[in-house]
Each structure stands twice: as C-alpha cells, then as structure tokens.
Here is the input.
Amino acid sequence: MKKLSIYVHIPFCLSKCTYCNFISFCNKSDKMDAYVQAVCNEIKLRGKEHGKFFDVTSVYIGGGSPSVLKEGQIAKIMTEIKNNFRVLQNCEITIECNPGSVTEKKLLEYKLVGANRISIGGQTLNNDILRILGRGHTADDTKEAIKLAQKVGFENINVDMILALPHQKMSDIKKMAKFLIKKKIQHISAYSLILEPTTPLFRQVKNKQITLPTEDESVEMYNYVFDFLKKKGYNRYEVSNFSLPDYESKHNLNYWQMGEYLAFGLAGHSFLNNTRFANTEKLEEYIDSIEQGKLPIVSKEKINANQRKDETIMLALRTSEGLNLKEFDNAFHCNLLTDKKKEIEFLTNHNFISVKRGYLRVNDNAFYVLNSIIAKLV
Ligand SMILES: C[S@@+](CC[C@H](N)C(=O)[O-])C[C@H]1O[C@@H](n2cnc3c(N)ncnc32)[C@H](O)[C@@H]1O
Ligand code: SF4
Here is the structure.
C-alpha cells in the first residue's frame, strides 16, 4: 500500500501578524462553519477517489490557526478523514495551535480525536516584540499553552521560534531556548525571519520605522540555537528543525523525501502520482465550488523526471541525513558521483559536503551556503 500524508489548511486567525504572508484572515470568522463543512465535503470527494489506495502515515492540521475553530470543529474534520481514508494506528496527527486561542477543553478534544502532536506558535517570549508583531498573545499565554498541552497528556510538542525579529537580542533567544529545554519540549522549529514584500513589516522596515538585526547577528542567533540544542541532545534533522531522538516530524520528513501528500482546504497544494495541484486561494470561491460538488483546483502540473530529480536533491540536502545515493540511482538511473564528479570533488575539498555510507550530505558548518551548494548539484 502506498503511503500518504494529509494536510488541512485552516485560514483563520485572531489577528494578522505583521510579518505573515500565509493565507489567513482575521475578519472572516462568520465563514468558519461553511468552511469546515466545505473541508469535510472535499475530504469525502477526495476519499472516494484515493481513499482505498493509500495508508495515511501523517495528518497535519495547520494554518492560519486551527485552534481558533470552535469546539468540535477539529473533531469533525478528523472524523471525516478517518471515515474516508485508511489512517494507520501509529499515524502522526499534529494540530497547530496559537497561544492566544488554545484552551484546555480544545486540547482535550484534539487528544480524544486521536491527535498525538501539538505545534505551538510561540515565536518569542519577549512581550514588546510580540506586540510589535501584532501577535495578539503574550509570553505567559505561550507558557500556559505548553503547560496545558502537557497536562492534557501530549508527549510530543513542537514550539516555533523566529530568529532575527525586530529589536530581538541574543539574550532573548538564549532565554527562550533555555525555557523550552527546561520544559522538555521534544521538537523546536527555529526559523530565520523572512521579510515578505507584501507584509506591513516589510513597509515598516523600508520606511526605517523598524530596524532588523543585521545578517551577521541573524547568523549568530542561528548558530547559537544549533550549538545549544546540540549540546542538549537535539538533532538538527533539517535546516530549521530540531528534535530529541525519535521525535522528528514524520509529516515534515515526508515532504523532504518527496513523498505523496493531499492538501485539503483553501490554497492547499498536493503532490500525487507525479502531479502537483493547487486549490483556489479565494475563500468564497473555495466554499462555492465544493457546494457545487466540484474540486476547487486552479492549477495542475505534471512533474517530469528531470524536475523530480532536481527536487529530490534540493529537498534531501535540507536534511541532516542527506541524499541516499543508491535510491537516487535506482529512481533516476543517474550516478550522481560520476555525473557531478567535478562539482562533488570541489564541494568535498572545501569541506562543504561529505559522502559517507552511501549518503551525500551537507556538513554542519555549511548550511548557511546551502542554496549555493544545491545550485552546483542540480
Ligand atoms: C503558518 S504559521 C502557523 C502558526 C500559527 N498560526 C502561529 O503563528 O501561531 C507556522 C510558522 O511559520 C513561521 N513563520 C510564519 N511567517 C514567517 C516569516 N515571515 N518568517 C519566518 N517564519 C515565519 C512561524 O514560526 C509560525 O509559527
Ligand atoms: S497567527 Fe500564524 S498564520 Fe496567523 S497571521 Fe500570525 S503567523 Fe500568520
């Protein structure tokens, strides 16, 4: 049986953070009921087509902020998935929670419906920065969300951090990293801020109302997180993702290993049978289309072998495991060590990559030039 990951997008938030360009709205809560119903109907439609052919190994309900949904709505979506797909007993089921909207009752609901992983968008524990970003919650809310998730019995918790935020100091990063270790958080995602051109933060930086840490400071923060977490037993299994042994996210790993996935909901992007397809980004269009029994797909692209080959290299090199050369050869009839002999020699001689035990991987000290390394190999 083929394996499948399922993603469900919940495009609602309590407030819109100034740096965020994800598809999410803070003024459309009147559409929540219709949206949840549409997602359930999309799951049914897709289930008829694909349900029998796959074993589901991970489900990720993300956003946006799934925790802003009303009580019972996540359970409704999860039940629909279980009724229409073969969800494996040991399936990893993650619910993304925003500290401003998660409650003990909602966490219990997630647990009862089979969720076994919670991802909390903490970002920073500095209240001044949280305010500047328009996050709509405080550091205490994040601490409370962690406490409640642990109380309810979640033993696999991720907390997101963002590095190089406005006014962020190294001391903020150290404080947060130490706090997460003290709380025995199993998984930490530490993203460096991406200044997205369509966001209010971009304009504030451009108008010099806000200054960001320098590139050097940003690298220093990332290196600190890497060194500190490594000392505490966390493995950086992907550029921005750190976990204790055996707590790597199956869902994330499936993306980086070019596994197949179906995404339900607004702007969902799927990859199935070597084809990528995307749902509409317009909320009303999404709901209307499903109400008429039509899938809301707006783009479809068949991925040819060359594209798959390049993407396999690109994604695998983001991971600490690296690229399995034998599997790559079997899949694409391409021996990378001979095809890219000159480039691989150059990168190895400069200590950027290593080839060991059948894997080609980027060295720990070279992740900051990952894109240039990939450019040489694809
Ligand atoms: C899609 S968001 C959903 C999480 C949840 N809505 C929240 O923010 O509490 C997933 C994560 O992406 C990260 N993220 C979002 N925008 C980012 C940006 N512009 N730069 C870096 N990381 C970002 C944040 O760490 C966030 O928690
Ligand atoms: S809560 Fe998360 S998804 Fe929502 S606006 Fe903020 S960063 Fe974006």
Observations:
- Residues 309-377 form a domain with the Arc Repressor Mutant, subunit A fold (CATH 1.10.10).
- The chain has 15 helices and 15 strands.
- The chain has two domains: 2-256, 309-377.
- Residues 78 and 113 are 7 Å apart (CA to CA).
